Amino acid sequence: MSADERGAVVRPREVEDVELTLAAGWGVAGRVRPLGSLQDAVYRVLGEDGTPIGAARVSTGAVDETALHAEGRILDHLAAALPELDLPTLQRGADGNLLQWRDGTSTRLMRWVRGERLAAWSRLPDQAARELGSVAGRVSRALQGLDEAALHRDVEWDPRHAVAVTEEYLDRCPPALRGDVERALVRVRDHLPAPDSTLLDQQVVHLDLTDLNVLGAFGRQGTFLATGLVDFEDMTWTWALCELAVTAHAAIDRRPEDPLGALRQVLDGYLEHKPLTETEADLLWDVVLARALICALVEGVEAAADPTNAYAARLAALDAVALRAVLDVHPTLAAASIRARCGHGTTHLEPVVPDFVPAAHLLRRCGIGGYQTMAALTDHERDAAVPDAMHLGTVVHVDGPADVLTPMAGAIHQVRGASVTLRLDVPGAVPAYLRVEGLEPDVAPGAHVALGVRLGGLPAGARSLHVQLMSDPALPGRGAVRDADLWRRLCPDPRRLLPETAQGLETVADGATARRRRSRHVAGVQKTYFRSPPLIVSGRGQWMYDSTGRRYLDMVNNVAIAGHSHPRITAAAAAQLDRLATNSRFLYDAIADYADKIAATLPPELDTILFVNSGSEAVEVALQMARAHTGRHDVVVVDGTYHGWTTELMELGTIEADRPGWRDRLAPWVHVADAPDPHRGAHGDDATAYVRSVEDRCLDAVPHGGVAAFVTEPVLGNRGGVVPPAGYLEDAFATVRRHGGLCIADEVQVGFGRTGASFWSFQNLGAVPDIVASAKAAGNGHPLGFVACRREIADSFAARSPFFSTAGGNPVSCRIGEAVLDVIAEEGLRENAVLVGDRIAAGLADLAARHPVIGATYGLGLYQGIDLVEAAAGDKTPLRPDAVADICERLLELGVIVQPTGLLGNVLKVKPPLCIGLADADRYLSSLDRALTEHEELTALAAAAGAGSVRGSLAGQGIPGRPQSTA
User: Which of 423, 547, 566, 954 could form a disulfide with 509 if both were Cys (CB 3.0 to 4.6 A apart)?
Assistant: First the structure.
């Protein structure tokens, strides 16, 4: 077929015509349904019960029947060798032929291949990528030793022919793609063997084992098991390595943000079944590049030729991105990674550097930084899935003007701007290059320089240089922390060339090591978020930064209410630490200053403050105060809440996850009222019924002397930010007081302006408690809490016994607390909570309209919750915990920190630092949209697998494959 004919769509024949051919040729009395295709017309053949029993392919024009019979024999062989995989084996007609002819068209009948194509899910997690590689390894191993003369043909998608195909299409290359195509062509032309080279083993390959053509079953947690293969039209005799390269490119197409990571997963799966030789390992990345080049160029040309073809345009766009992704990985790093994965070692890629260096040094009177330390990154760089965040050399700090001298003899390889690269005179197979950046060069390229010769000096005002040893002068100055071990081999520690430096290795922090160290002595019950948590090394504002240089939008940290590491709060802490840090029994101004500022946020009657360290201590003290004031003991709480970890407060816990079996162990002095939850509560939005429940519990306390306190979060934070029905809180408080009890507002989570309109959440609901307990946000991460109450309540408490909290109200904590209040007021963070909270609420309402998995949304300001449900159930059945965890893990991958909460563990909580902006809200909403879309896709796919679905894709069945042609 000519290039001009490529991609033409054949007009499908009438269904009745195809059914007649199937009946006459194969004795099949099935019904057929047309399927999409880019070339031939393809039909699903259905049995009497409506299930697929085969696929018919109708072609016009000449058919290479020799190649078709070769394909049939290969399929039969694979079917025997890989019985675990369904294959579209060709069915012979009643006359023994594979083709039946009718009115100038040919029809072939293939066995139906069951399963869902891997491409049906918009995600490609690690396990699925490894399974894809495993399929390629199994097929490649099974095809070894087979040969079919008809398959010794040139297929334009074959990476062997990348140079010839590129030259054929180059003059039609879209301008936006041309730069990358030309870069790739230079690399492929210089490094790829000739098509007829015997440097690489050759065999029959499928040549299109991609996510479009590998079918299988999806598990509920994203696992994929391959059960079938389709589309054998591209089979050819070529390098065996091409099978793996094609599959790796398909994975990179799906994960262009981390091409090397995608390749590693595919490679691991492949290596389980078939090893790579050292030569194959060294050339794999170049063969992947060759495939990426062909796909991007050919599909780019075809998309440009037919602007109305949306599918071609989408495919071209994906492959253009994949080509750029492959080009952006340095081939030396790729080769080192592949060799290490294959167990071949990397010594032939590592520069030779002597252990002993002559006494001359690059610089004198300098301070030497660590090796492989973190670089300063832009926000855009920190958003990368795998940021290049690590210096591959060291930073040298200089006091004043200095001469930069050669530490060894060598040749000036390159001078570019403020950078000089010197090839060192070191004998060995792998050369060693030294790059010095940040100087004013005095040398020219090509010159040979002796030991101690001046390379240049520091520009005026400059105080540092970047120094790097490397095996390849084109290696970058920064790399990913994930690849630290590989980079250490390619770019060894250069500090030996500097004066009086220790040779110990200093590297960036390592998350795996941190997890091991934590588990050594830290109790396992003190858990971390996430299955493989990132190592968080710093925070600023609404962002947290991990040891790889990546940043995450923090959507759960209600502790850092003013933003992580706020400079004003940090300065206040440092200044007071430098002046005085002691306990609150000494007289100092800080405690009075802070108490004044707290009181100014509260109703005037709540004018007395006691200082503590934590939320648990605050609620515990509030409970003791209520008992001291009323002379009673019993407490009313709301179902599904948590108030702290002290022994007494755990008795109030009514969340199964926190206190398993609490209903069977309920203390006689604890009385549990119905939760005023309009969505999941027993009485819907009937405030009166919920208040009646509170009164009933007060009555239950009468035989024990009456109720001492009603403890509640005004907004039910532990349920995910549930706002009670209008009037509930005020009436509930009035009811408790009528029965002689006090009302304690647990504002530990929901206070400090988080709910927006008012500073305290009880103010938003038109009620005033007798006692307020607060902590968490009070210190912006510093342990600080307090209790506020009426004076007479505090006096009753004092009459019982003295009170003292060693660190509660200490001067450092108080100055921090003051600074937090000042920042909230002066930076308008409460107003921002309203503005950004409204944006998030509107966005969640839109998502809820499009995602059945969202059963309800809750909250006020920047305390909101998203109640997730089993959408297929069509009711309020909570989404199972593993699925909720999967959504949170996916959001982490997308750079957003989210965690579940709620009585049933199915509510995503939204309680970020109050400094979050509108753009951050949009980022969160778009990430959540993507994660929920992927979850719903997977749910449908897993349900189909569980139901024994036989839907599938076969050489165009519902899924157009790559255009088929021969060059």
Answer: 547
Mapping DSSP onto H, E and C, the string for 442-508 reads CCCCCCEECCCCEEEECCCCCCEEEEEEECCCCCCCEECHHHHHHHHHHCCCHHHHCCCCCCCCCCC
Name the pLDDT band for 357 (thresholds 50, 70, 90).
low
What's the CA gap between 9 and 425, in Å, rounded?
62
Say which residues have a Cβ less than 8 Å from residue 231's Cβ, sequence separation at least 6.
208, 212, 213, 954, 955, 956, 961
Pairing mode, strands 634-638 and 670-673: parallel
Is residue 503 pLDDT above 90, yes or no? no
Other CB atoms within 10 A of residue 457 CB? 15
β-pair partners for 479: 390
Work out the angle at residue 829's Cα, subtended by the Cα atoms of residues 824 and 834, and round it to the nearest 5 degrees.
Answer: 145
- Per DSSP, the three-state class of 346 is coil
How, if at all, do strands 100-102 and 707-712 pair? unpaired
Backbone angles phi, psi at 871, to 5 degrees: -60, -35
What is residue 402's three-state secondary structure?
Answer: coil
Q: Are 564 and 555 in contact (CB under 8 A)?
A: no
Q: For residue 773, list its beta bridge partners.
A: 746, 787
pLDDT of amino acid 966:
26
The C-alpha atoms of residue 481 and residue 387 are separated, in whole angstroms, by: 8
User: Are the C-beta atoms of residues 771 and 630 closer than 8 Å to each other?
Assistant: no
Q: Hey, what amino acid is at 614?
A: S
Match 């930084």 to its residue by tokens: 369
Q: Does 437 score more than 80 pLDDT?
A: yes
Q: What's the confidence (pLDDT) of residue 954?
A: 31
Q: What single letter denotes the amino acid at residue 823?
A: V
Burial of 500 (0-12, 13-18, 19+ CB in 10 A): exposed
pLDDT at position 4: 36
Element housing 388 (H / E): none
**Does this model's pTM top 0.85?**
yes
∠ CA 154-156-161 to the nearest 5 degrees?
75
| The one-letter amino acid at 304 | A
Structure tokens at 682: 């027993």
Contact 633, 627 (CB under 8 A): yes
Do residues 244 and 138 lie in contact, with contact meaning Cβ atoms separated by under 8 Å? no
Residue 166, classed as helix, strand or coil, is: helix
Residue 868 — left, alpha, or beta (φ > 0 → left; ψ -120 to 50 → alpha)?
Answer: beta
Query: Are the C-beta atoms of residues 242 and 905 closer than 8 Å to each other?
Result: no
3-state DSSP of 322-378? HHHHHHHCCHHHHHHHHHHHHCCCCHHHCCCCCCCCCCCCCCCCEEEEEECCECCCC
Q: What is the C-alpha to C-alpha distance for residues 447 and 500, in angstroms, rounded to an integer?
A: 29
What's the mean pLDDT in 577-592?
94
Mean pLDDT, residues 759-771 = 96
- How many residues appear in the chain? 967
Q: Burial code of 410-420, b = ≥16 C-beta within 10 A, e = fewer?
A: bbbbebeebbb
Query: Who's near 186: CB < 8 A, 6+ residues apart?
Result: none
Please, are residues 924 and 847 in contact by the beta-carbon 8 Å criterion?
no
